[in-house]
Each structure stands twice: as structure tokens, then as C-alpha cells.
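Running co-folding for adenosine monophosphate.
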Amino acid sequence: MLDTRMMPFSLSVTHLLERGRAIHPGSEVVSRLPDKSLHRQTYRDTYERSERLAKALTRLGIGRGDRVATLSWNHRQHLEAYLGVPAMGAVVHTLNLRLFPAEIGYIANHADDKAVIVDRTLFPLFEKFRHEVKSLRHVLCVRDDGGPLPDGALDYEVLLAEEAPTARPDGFGPPAGSPFFHPDEQAAAMVCYTSGTTGNPKGVAYTHRSTVLHALVASMRDNLGVGADDVVMPVVPMFHAAAWGLPYVAWVNGAKVVFPGPHLDPESLLDLMQAERVTFAAGVPTIWNGILAKLDAEPKRWDLSAMRTMVIGGSAAPPAMIRGFAERHGLLVTHAWGMTETNPLGTVASVKANVAERGADAVLHARSSQGLPVAFVETRHVDERGAIMPWDGKTMGELEVRGPWVARSYMGDEGPDRFTADGWFKTGDVVTIDGDGYVRITDRSKDVIKSGGEWISSVALENALMSHPSVLEAAVFAREDSKWGERPVAAIVLRPDQEVTEKELEGHLAPHFVKYWLPDSYVFVPEIPRTSTGKFLKSKLREEYGKS
Ligand code: AMP
């Protein structure tokens, strides 16, 4: 083979960190504190604080490969851990604060966490599982609420203040004496756990390489398209799927970052978006549903003229929501799909030129699909025997993906059945793929409804139900049926002060679906049960309303 003599330069988080300091030192990181005041620091400050954190952790005995956990909302200290921990060769492990304490304890134990950074406001939760984590040696407490330091914890700010920044020349580092270095690109940078609605949560270890490549491809214009003039607000929690990689995406581009902290209600988010002139925000549909309702109720209250796009993912964004934002408020939604196992971005619903030419309906259809695979992610869908299905937009099959930021196994080789012998990851999502390459989720494989041997797409029915003006949310699930095997039932959450009959809903669906797809019945519920990461928990609905 020709010896190319190209540099073997590792794709590491360390480079991202160095680049931010060298090229974008003045870019801002804004964090909303528990008392709602705003804290501001620059990229230069963030670099220095990340370095002090790395020095403090080193002094505490944290070394290469050791796991440093976080139990935190989205804020600057969380970003410092995202950057500083991997750049010192250790591994940042984000704990999901919405899980049950016993589950968090299981996960922290499983990951062998040596240290944890905990928000003081989350200490009551931490106390419920800390003693189960046998490997835990150090607890660093972020006291942004100004409260006293809990027993047995080290003060994050005091630890940082005890360290000094390393003297350095201008430009790229890391300089001699810094705890930072360029790790092997295949070394672990971050560990995230799946939300584990079936079986125990499983660990996915992202590499430096996967994290960096993911940030670069996510930055492409047809994907998330972030630049130095953007103001990025990750509403998606940093404890779930690396906040879709946004902290790294923002950082590699030098964009201003705005962290909402613990204030995730629609009004607080809208105030922050207006005040900081946010151009790019990302979160799950529940968040955006709340924001849309608030904007509809008070259309003139907020000036969101800076907003370029809002990324919605984690669950399906209903077309009615995408249309509502566009038509009533002039706001563009970018729909994206991903998983913890895919670092997490897999597909983005961008609009190809040939689709745009087909007019507004085709554009909305494309935008409300899960989208096109991003560069370097490959997609296929297969039937129960593994045969590859046609890209005809009709035939359903389980989505499989492969690519440089897709897991090749779980930590400890758990769940081997999710990985095929020929190197693909089985997503568990049932999809169609059309001739343009657009992926459209019709169900989770464990939630599919099979009636008389035919699959019925609960997502298609939900989207149609959610386009009814009285319906806030709809989840369609299977009920056992002696004749057909299963039949669809719809759980409906009404908008405040609205009423609707089953007949009306049936009339609303009937023109769009073949008869056997129509739900047999409707249950009106105050809310849809959800998983810790905001997805519909249909197993709960099946338990409650799905027995024949
Ligand atoms: P998690 O690993 O917790 O992020 O969950 C990943 C799962 O969330 C996927 O397998 C999908 O079932 C679901 N999901 C993520 N994004 C979307 C989306 N845009 N539309 C529908 N489902 C989604």
C-alpha cells in the first residue's frame, strides 16, 4: 500500500477544547441558575475552569479511563465536565436524574463510577442511591443555589479555586504541565446508558473519534447547521444521549451556548429564548408542545425573531405541531431521530431539492418524517427473517443502522441480540423508507399493533388524532382481541376546556385510513404515561386498558 505520510492526528475532544480557547475565546456560555438569574462566562473561562477541574480530579486520584459521573441539569459546570474529563483521558458518565434512585444506583455501579459531580439541588436524590455505589470515592457538589455544602461532599468551586491555570503560549495546546493531552481517538470519552424500558439499562461507551465525527457531521448545513454566529440552547438534557451532541457541536463552531438549568417550563424557556436571542434550540416534543400552546395563547408576548430553527427529536414530532409553528408563528422545526446507541444523531428531516420542487405538501411530508440518514450513517430495514425490504415508502420493517458513531456492542457485551452478524445495529424501530431515502417511523417494535396479521402504524394514527383541534396528545396502543389478535385503542389527552366524542374522532380519522386501522375505542386520560426520557410508555397503557 502507498505510504501516504498523512499525520496520524487523533480526533479527540481535546482538540475541540483547544480550538475553542484558541479561536473563539470570547464566545459566551450563559447558564440560568436555580434562582433564575443568569451567569455568564467566556469560552476562555470555560477552558480554564475545565483545566482546573481536570487538575483537581487528578489530585483526587482520578486517572485515565476512570469514570467521572454527573448528576446535573444543563449548565456550565456540566459543560466543563463534558470537555475537561475526556481531555484528561478520563470518561464522563452522565446519570439520568429522571430515573428511579435504585436504577441510577444500578447504573453508577455498573459503570464503576469513581467520582460524581452533583448539583446541590439534586442531593436529596443522590442520597437515595449513593451508598449503593461501591466504587464511588469522591463527591463534588455544585452549589449554584447558594445552599450549604452537604456532608461528605467537596465544594466544586473550592476545588477549582485551589488549582492554577497552566502557563501557555498563544494558540493551540495543550501546553506542558497541563492535565490535558490528545488521547487515542478510540479511547472512551463518554458513557451513556439506555433508558432501559425493557430489562436493565445498558451502557454505551462513545469514543473520542465517534464524538468528534458526530459533532462535525451534525454541524453540516442540512443536518443541524450550526455556526459561530448561532446562539444554541440545548433544552434536551445533558444527562440524556449527550444532549444530542450539542455541547460539542456548539463548541467546535464557537457558538454562544445558553443553558436553561432546571427551568424547563414553557414560559421560562420562552423568556430565555427572547432575552438571549436564541437562534437554535433543541428538545423533545413534550417541551415544544407546551411552547406551542403558550405561543398560541399569547401570540404577541415573545419576540422570537432571532430563532432560525428548533430541533425536535426523541419522539415523533407530529405534523400538526410542525405546521402550527410554521403557519401561526413563522418558526421552522427540524425533525431528527437518534438513539443513545447512535451517539445519538441518525437521521435529520432536511428537504432535498427534488422534494422542494413538489410543493408545500411534499415539503411538510418530508419534514415530518424522521428524515434522511446523515453522512456516514447507513440505513436498511428488514422483515422478521432479516430479509431487506424495498425503499418504496410502504413496506414496513425494523430499522437497522451502521456507521462510525453507532455502538458495535453494549458495555459488558449485554444485549448481543441487538447486533447482527453482518455488522448492523437493530434499532427496534419499525419504519418505511421511501425512494428518496426518507425514513418514517411507524412504531417501536415492542409497541406494534398486529391486527389480523397486518401491521397498523400507531404513529400515523397518533399524528392524525393530534391534528384535531381539541386533542393535545394521543397514544395508540394494542388491546388483545380474540378474533384479530390485537386491535388499536387510542388514549386521548384533551386540550384545556375542550370536549370531543368518540364519533367525532372517528369521523376525523375515517377519510385518511382503511377501516381496519381505525381504533376500536378511545380512552380519555389526564396524561399519557411516559418513560424517564419523555417517551410514551405504552406498556403501561396496555397493562391498564389493553386486556380483552
Ligand atoms: P433513546 O436512546 O432514549 O434516545 O431512545 C431512542 C428511541 O427514541 C428511538 O429508538 C425511537 O424509538 C425514539 N425516537 C427518537 N427520535 C425519534 C423521532 N424523531 N421520532 C420518533 N421516535 C424517535
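Result summary
The pocket of adenosine monophosphate is lined by residues 194-195, 241, 313-316, 335-340, 344, 370, 427-429, 441, 444, 533, 535 (CB under 6 Å).
The first strand starts at residue 28 and ends at 32.
Job closed.
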